[in-house]
Amino acid sequence: MPSDNIDAWVAAQKKLPRAPTDEELAVFREFLDAPSNDVWKYAQRIASFYIKPFEESRVDIFWFVLGDAVNRLVSQNDKLADLVLELQRLPDGKGILGPDPWWSDLPYFNNFWTEWMQFRFDDLSQSHPDLEANSQANVNRNAFLAKLTARMGKVIDLDQRERGGETLKQALEQTQISNTNSLAGWTESWEYPHNGTNWGIQKGWSKDRWQYWRKRFYDISNMANMKEETRKVAKECAERMEAIENTRD
Fold first, then answer.
1. What would the pLDDT profile of 157-214 be if each residue is shown by its tens digit?
2. How confident is the model at residue 118 (pLDDT cuts 50, 70, 90)?
3. How far is CA 146 from CA 14, 17, 81, 115, 201, in A?
4. Among residues 149, 49, 172, 166, which one has the least CA distance to residue 114?
5. Residue-wise over 163-190: b if at least 16 C-beta within 10 A, else e?
6. Of 109, 133, 173, 201, which is the most buried if we count CB atoms within 10 A?
7. Contacts of 199 (CB under 8 A, 6+ apart)
8. Residue 114 CB coordination number (10 Å)
9. Sequence-separated (6 or more) residues with CB below 8 Å from residue 50
10. Which tops the pLDDT comparison, 243 or 175?
11. Degrees (nearest 5) of the Cα angle 179, 181, 185?
12. Which residues of 218-243 are buried (b: 16+ CB within 10 A; e: fewer)?
C-alpha cells in the first residue's frame, strides 16, 4: 500500500479486530485531509470521543490508529506530531481522572509506544518483501518522536530522548551498520549539554559517547558500501552534532 494512500489506510483500519468506530474514523480522516493550521480544531473533536473514565474510554484504540498512521502516512508526520501536542494542551475533562485536564499526561501514550511499537531495527534480509515498508516505518517513528521531544517544553510525558538514545545506541554501536537514515530526525531534538538534556548528567549519556556517535556518523558518510542517501544523512547528522558542540565550547 503506498504510504500516502489515505483511502487504503482508512479501509485497513476498519478491518482491525478492535477497530475505531465509523464516527471516530470519519473525524480522523477529516483531520488527515485538513490543513495544518486546523489541527487544534480536530484535536478538540478527536479528544471528545475519549474523555471518559478509563473503564469506558477507548483511548487505547486511538493510540493504535495514530501509531499506524505514523508508520504508514509519510506526508502526515508533522501533523500527527502536532495533534499529540494539541491534545496534551486541551483544558477539557477536569475531574474525570483527577484535578488536571484529561489529556494533560496523555493517558497510555508512553505505555503504547513502549509495549506495542517497534523501535529496534528488524534484521530483515535485503530480499525480504517487507524491508522497504519496515525501513520507512522506522524513519517515520523516529522523526515523529523527535518532533515531540524538540517541542516538549516541560511536559515530561513527551520526552522521548531515552527511547531515541536506545535507537541511536543500537544503530551506531553495533558492528554492522544499516538503516542509518532512520536516525536523522533525532539530531533535531538532541542538544549537546544544556539545561534539560541528559548529556553529561545522566548515567550512560557522557560527552565521550556523544563524540563517539559523531565520529561514527562521519565514518558512515565515507562508507562506499552504503547508499548515497544514507551517506548524505550521516554526514548531515555529524555536521549538526559538531555545530551543536561548537556553540557550547
1. 888 877 777 777 777 877 565 555 455 555 544 444 444 455 555 667 778 888 888 9
2. low
3. 29, 30, 9, 19, 20
4. 166
5. bbbebbeebbeeeebbbbbbbbbbbebb
6. 109
7. 190, 191, 192, 193, 205, 206, 207, 210
8. 10
9. 57, 58, 59, 62, 102
10. 243
11. 130
12. bebbeeeebeeebbebbeebbebbee
Nearest to 12 by CA among 55, 72, 57, 53: 72
Q: Which residue has the higher pLDDT, 166 or 123?
A: 166
What is the C-alpha to C-alpha distance for residues 1 and 146, in angstroms, rounded to an integer?
25
Q: Measure the CA–CA gap between 211 and 155, rounded to whole angstroms.
A: 28
**pLDDT at residue 74, as a whole number:** 92
- The tens digit of pLDDT for each residue in 142-162 reads 889 888 988 888 888 888 877
Please check whether residue 234 is in contact with residue 220, taking contact to mean a CB–CB distance below 8 angstroms.
yes
Distance CA 176, CA 164 (A): 19
Residue 189 C-alpha cell reads as 531534538
